[in-house]
Write a structure and sequence with these properties.
Shape: elongated
Number of helices: 15
Strand order of the largest sheet: 2-1-3-4-5
Number of strands: 5
Helix content: 55-70%
Distance between the termini: 50 Å
Structural class: alpha/beta
Number of domains: 2
Order of helices and strands: HHEHEHEHEHEHHHHHHHHH
Strand content: 5-15%
Low-confidence stretches: none
Length: about 375
């Protein structure tokens, strides 16, 4: 029954050594992922982008802001001049928290009277929202206790921190994860399918036939891309349908805008997939390289863990992933109702990235078929 097994084992080891690229990829993937994810995955929230509207500009208000900064949770990016600008910063996604200190705050505290402070929180990211809310309220209680004598602890809280969620007030997990899943699923399918496009032709032996066919190289490449582009957009609309009617996650912003920006994202995903397809020699290699890119795209893009809490080198790695910007666009349009004026920077980066990836893919594709 076991006769000849040793010969088969010897043969398989020879086959493995004849394909060293696959072996290197298999050994490299776990090492790279362990290093990246070991540093990046941290459930502790830090450096939450925060803007301030200080209408009092007193010693007491500056003391309050210094206490906020000292927690390490809030990264005070700067000040705005109106409540409209404060809310616009949160809608655009440039900030997750806004602190508004009213005029007369310092005077009320100096007179021993309660003073209110409003903290606006972006509820579209419930991981950040719950912790920023509890920390802000705890800080107000602590400052109140420090300012009153033990005999007056039962009286009204002096520093009264009021929190308000601008979006997703119930902090529903589905409202946070479902928009992110739209981007991850779209990226997964489009990149994986196109990563097999050219390498499959190599394995089937039809690449030479394509190279000598009367089809231009540009037409050949577009012919490879457009079917997957159509499939990707159909898939996105199916996922959006389920998000809206199964998980009750309504689209607060413009659906045509979301469709247009999704088209840009799909182009970048297709370009990345084609680059993989031209680099890999077998479909196994293409699949391994795709998963080496896919896992960081899921864990580093802000889909699960906030990017602000990641170490700076990991943060910059996440900035190289197209899905990072599409996650911001998805949550901005679907949850915050953001428009193009709030998402132009993510759109510009994603467009530039898509053009670059397609240019590289075109060069590699011509080199492959030439």
């Amino acid at each position: 029954m076991m006769r000849g097994m040793s010969g088969i084992i010897y043969k398989e080891f020879i086959q493995i050594t004849r394909n060293p690229a696959t072996l290197v990829i298999m050994l490299l993937i776990p090492i790279v992922q362990l290093i990246i994810f070991g540093y990046a995955i941290d459930t502790e929230v830090r450096n939450v982008r925060t803007v301030v509207l200080d209408l009092d500009n007193s010693h007491e208000s500056r003391e309050f802001l210094n206490r906020f900064r000292a927690t390490g949770l809030y990264d005070l990016m700067g000040q705005v001049t109106s409540d409209t600008a404060l809310e616009a910063e949160i809608v655009s996604g440039r900030a997750s928290v806004g602190i508004m200190i009213p005029a007369g705050y310092g005077r009320e505290l100096a007179g021993g009277r309660p003073a209110q402070i409003l903290v606006l929180i972006d509820g579209s990211n419930n991981t950040i929202a719950s912790q920023t809310m509890s920390t802000a309220q705890t800080l107000g209680i602590r400052m109140s206790i420090e300012r009153v004598s033990p005999r007056r602890l039962s009286q009204a809280q002096l520093v009264d921190v009021r929190t308000r969620f601008l979006f997703n007030p119930d902090l529903r997990s589905a409202a946070f994860f479902v928009p992110g899943l739209v981007g991850v699923i779209l990226f997964l399918v489009t990149m994986l399918l196109t990563s097999f496009a050219i390498v499959r032709e190599k394995e089937l032996g039809t690449m030479e036939q394509l190279a000598v066919s009367p089809v231009s190289r540009g037409g050949l490449m577009l012919g490879k891309i457009l079917p997957y582009l159509l499939l990707g957009m159909i898939q996105m609309n199916v996922v959006l349908f389920f998000a809206q009617f199964v998980f009750n996650v309504d689209i607060a912003g413009s659906l045509p805008l979301l469709e247009g920006l999704a088209l840009i994202f799909v182009f970048s995903s297709l370009g990345l997939g084609l680059i993989i397809s031209t680099v890999a020699k077998t479909q196994l290699q293409a699949m391994l390289i795709s998963f080496m890119i896919l896992l960081p795209s899921i864990l580093l893009s802000g889909f699960i863990f906030p990017r602000e809490s990641m170490p700076l080198p990991i943060y910059w790695i996440s900035a190289l992933l197209p899905v990072t910007y599409f996650e911001e666009i998805l949550r901005g349009i679907m949850l915050r109702g953001a428009g193009m004026e709030a998402l132009w920077d993510e759109t510009a980066v994603l467009t530039g990235m898509g053009l670059l990836l397609l240019a590289i893919a075109t060069f590699r594709f011509r080199k492959t078929v030439g």
